[in-house]
Amino acid sequence: MAEKSERPTINVAVVRGAAPSLYDWVLIGAEEEGVPTKLAEAASGDVVDAAYAAAISSRIDIGVAIGADAIVLHERHMPPEKPVLTIPYEGKSEAVCRRAGANAARMVARLPLLFEDAVEDVDEQVRPASERRAAARSAASAPAKTAAASWDGNGGGMPAQGQARAEGSAARTCTNQHAAETARPTAGEAASQLALSEAEIRKIVKIVVAIIKERGTQWR
């Protein structure tokens, strides 16, 4: 039996044939849940056996093995051939490894595991530092005309996406103005609505005269 590591960590083994960079994503998922990891030597070429060996060597009894096609999460009290989780990558190896790291940490904290039908795409903000630096260098070395490719056909002016938003805003403004003008009555319509008949005017005059007489003021 392998000796337990001195530091309480989730031990992670990378099986031969798997991409070593996937360990970074297991680390990210575990650290997001507040638990550290340690890269351990793969004790076997079989991903399930390697995960169980990693769990045995961990002081917190949790091990992960990264295979070429799937990642395995194991716990030392489980039967060696029955891991807690075996998750195939299905084209999303980075996101799957990140999720496996989070689940390994949640096992330590005794929290519910994260199960979703679709694994989310990798967030650029949590991409390993080495990949972020490589992307930044690539962007910095790109020709200036690449940045201008999204602008209008004359090589200047407003970016296509911004232009679309501006045109959409202008269209909405025109629509709102048209609606307001349609709802606003014309001067002639307003005058016709305010016009009173002769009978209505006489009735108003009689009411005013009656009010004045009641107040004791002589009507002249």
Automatic annotation (TrEMBL):
Region annotated Disordered, chain positions: 130-163
Pfam family of the protein (one): Dehydratase_MU
Biased composition (Low complexity): 136-150
Protein name: Dehydratase medium subunit
Organism, scientific name: Afifella marina DSM 2698
